[in-house]
Amino acid sequence: EAGVTQFPSHSVIEKGQTVTLRCDPISGHDNLYWYRRVMGKEIKFLLHFVKESKQDESGMPNNRFLAERTGGTYSTLKVQPAELEDSGVYFCASSQVTRADTQYFGPGTRLTVL
Amino acid sequence: AQSVTQLGSHVSVSEGALVLLRCNYSSSVPPYLFWYVQYPNQGLQLLLKYTSAATLVKGINGFEAEFKKSETSFHLTKPSAHMSDAAEYFCAVRPTNFGNEKLTFGTGTRLTIIP
Which of A58, A90, A96, B112 is the least buried, fewest Cβ under 10 Å from its Cβ? Predict the structure, then answer.
């Protein structure tokens, strides 16, 4: 069974540009989560999808971040325009609705904003 | 709000020695507790979890953790360190109510194994 995959693994962009991160959850996992780790600090929750609906987006830092999950499969996280403080590692995780106590994480996307 | 404190951002132990990584949490009610590990260039992998069953939890790779409500702790231990244990370890908590699945992480502890 394939795990959670994320694309790209690394992205380097200039301040003011747009970047889109993609996450493919484990097949059959209706829960999808985004987290971010900035500058070696703690990993912080961004938002939670159940299928295509946003269950909790309390961690989204501001309106420059837009997450979508069309069709309840893969998800994208767009940052527009990117700022220096957006640099960090963005993790995606997924879980089954009936086994939500276990979240499976992807390898992360390392975003660097110059 | 819930929070997690991991004492020691870096811990070094000799190969074969006891590994002890500390985690204390703050929560108004006992939460679910987790330890995750991140090996170099990999994602987070679940080591073990406490979800209101036995207070001593055994995980993968010989790790275990004990939930101590009176001390609000969930320390991670392994009797004998192996070189392959070198990684970064994260303690996390989440509420127990269905639908509230946001994990709150500590700042991580990087474990170095000395040959």
Answer: A58
